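dumping this here before i forget
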Amino acid sequence: MLNTVYRLISPKRIEANFTDITLTADNVLVRPTYLSICHADQRYYQGRREGDILREKLPMALIHEAVGRVMYDPVGKLKAGEGVILIPNQPFEKDAVIEENYLESSKFRASSCDGFMQEYVITNRDRLLRVPKDLTAEMGAFTEMVSVCTHTVMRFERFSHDRRKKIGIWGDGNLSYILSAILSELYKDCQLYVMGVHEEKLATFTFADQTFHVDHIPDDLRIDHAFECVGGSASQSVIEQIIARIHPEGSVALMGVSENAIPVNTRMVLEKGLHVFGSSRSGKKDFEKVIELYKTYPRLKNYFLNLIGCVMDVKNIQDMSNAFEYDLNSSFGKTIMRWDV
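structure:
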């Protein structure tokens, strides 16, 4: 069967490639329908990765956040026409200790293998989840991002102590918004403080107890635990603020991606006995947890509706480029491609 894969050849240049695909009993043929653009996709598209990384990765199809429609399941477990959430992590082994998204042998769509910008996708059956009937396809498209935040919260549950009276979240983007909303539902007795730089974005964090500009955080504010959702060079000053304001033995979750090494005041990390941990990507169980959270805390879906910034019809390569350029200039929310190539 002939398939069209839309690969990024070089920054801002997407080309159609034709490949032959073969379906086995373990795989399912899926037609992507809604694709969500992530900052990681933008870094590749805009050429904001190191040159040697771009040369290693490209050409490659982008996008790791998507939903689709089942076209054919050889064993009939999934029916043709069913809506499914596509899981980008591709594990090849199981480990009793290390989770699938941290295994060095795992592949990840739009990073170490082709993403979902394809006419059809062949994927293992266990990399698919049915879209719940009460979940819109537009919201389902960025389930992966919600799963990353869910994964971090589950790790926080394992690593942090039980004193959770005050939690600080640094960042005012989509990642921070999703994380803060989840924390607000899970820890209703906890006070949530969100720190950012854009007042208009901070105003959308209606579930936070208080929001502050990073330059105007009260001197006496102290927190039990913290989440860093900034990344880039700004994460250095953010981590400094966190270390200065967190109580001893608190947990610090690092979620923002930085291309360059970030200095950390290890003396104060040691003095305070802090537990600093990183979280990256997610696995199938995190996607399943998201569906469970939507059922248990239906208000989350109302919060996340605010993240649907723009839904763009994509029928050709020019439409794809237009979507990436629109997303680059969007200050908040997710740009969704209604995939009709």
